[in-house]
Amino acid sequence: MDLEPAVLDFWFDFASTYSYVGAMQIEELCRAAGVPIRWKPFLLGPIFARQGLRDSPFNVYPRRGAYMWRDLERLCHKHGFPWRQPTRFPRSSTLPARVACLIADEPWCGDFVRRIFVANFGEDREIGELPVVAKILEELGKPSELIGTALDESHRGLLRTNTAQADALELFGAPNCIVNGEIFWGEEALADAVEWARRPSA
Amino acid sequence: MDLEPAVLDFWFDFASTYSYVGAMQIEELCRAAGVPIRWKPFLLGPIFARQGLRDSPFNVYPRRGAYMWRDLERLCHKHGFPWRQPTRFPRSSTLPARVACLIADEPWCGDFVRRIFVANFGEDREIGELPVVAKILEELGKPSELIGTALDESHRGLLRTNTAQADALELFGAPNCIVNGEIFWGEEALADAVEWARRPSA
Question: Is the ipTM of this complex over 0.85?
Answer without folding.
Answer: yes
